[in-house]
Amino acid sequence: GGGVNGGPGVSPFGVSAWRRILVANEWAKLQGARRTSLELTLLVLCWALAGNDLQYLATPQPNLDDHSPDSCGSEKQKGLNMILRFASTTWWFILCEFGQYMFQEGRRYLAHCGLAYEPVGQALVDLCTAAKISVLLLDDTYHGWLLHCDSAADSADVPMSLLTRQLLLEAKAGHLSGKRGPAHLADRPGFDEVQAFELYVGDGFISWYR
Hints:
This protein has helices at 17-30, 38-51, 82-112, 120-131, 160-172, 203-209, and strands at 135-138, 143-147, 196-200. 43% of the residues lie in helices and 7% in strands. Residues 1-8 have low confidence and may be disordered. The relative contact order is 0.12.
């Protein structure tokens, strides 16, 4: 539970099981996180198509400003063209999803500048760093990703007052979003802020891991 180089804060029992469970639970929550919200997309579709009568743009008539159901005939759904209806619904769906995606990208940029709350992915990295737990993720048999998460504190199993003091010192030094890379890469420009690494493993590691 201590630093990578050992020290007075190193626990004789190793990494706390509760810290591992905490990180595992946060990773499990992240599996359901998406950049866009399907519920919001469906709500916007209902508002645009049904609430504003834009569904009647699917009628086979040349006037785009005519949103009257009378253009469909006596039965409201009778005159709707299936292909035009699919095209109209798909257009609004893509527009809503793209808008949400651009909003998330803008929020990510603002978070990098310290002007907005951070994305959930960065929050996981910050949590792992505060807990001093690096994460190995294998998305294939021989390929994966390594999150190097090690704060400057001697130990993560400390009182809340010490943890808060360390986070405040880190933020004051301007290292909240970076400067947490591996120590042997600190002298290489740009690598002092890198915490995610692509990883390729061999048969020996896979045999040991299994």
